[in-house]
Specification:
This protein is of the alpha+beta class. Helix content is 51%, strand content 15%.
């Protein structure tokens, strides 16, 4: 016989727990990457994920990857934290 037990927690607590775990995992990746670039451009993320521009945009639209929007005058630029991209690669649900 196995010792499997089930617990029930409210959905909001479960989402908070998942969010906390993601934060911890990305913090650990940041520590491991002390010498790596902290932020990546859209093109660098494409190269790292080996995906097309449309695929990366789909990940962003689906909320799988989040970026930081910076602006200078009328120009806007989307930057991505390297640790977040590494977390996505480790927990990739594409397949």
């Amino acid at each position: 016989m196995s010792d499997i037990k089930f617990i029930t927690i409210p959905a909001t607590e479960w989402e908070n727990l998942k969010s906390d775990l993601k934060f911890i995992a990305t913090a650990v990746l940041e520590i491991k990457q002390k010498n790596a670039k902290e932020f990546l451009t859209f093109k660098e993320v494409q190269q790292k994920l080996k995906c097309s521009r449309n695929t990366l945009q789909n990940y962003i639209n689906a909320g799988k990857i989040t970026g930081l929007e910076t602006s200078r005058g009328i120009y806007k630029k989307l930057l991505f934290r390297n640790a977040d991209i590494d977390y996505f690669l480790q927990n990739d649900k594409r397949n």
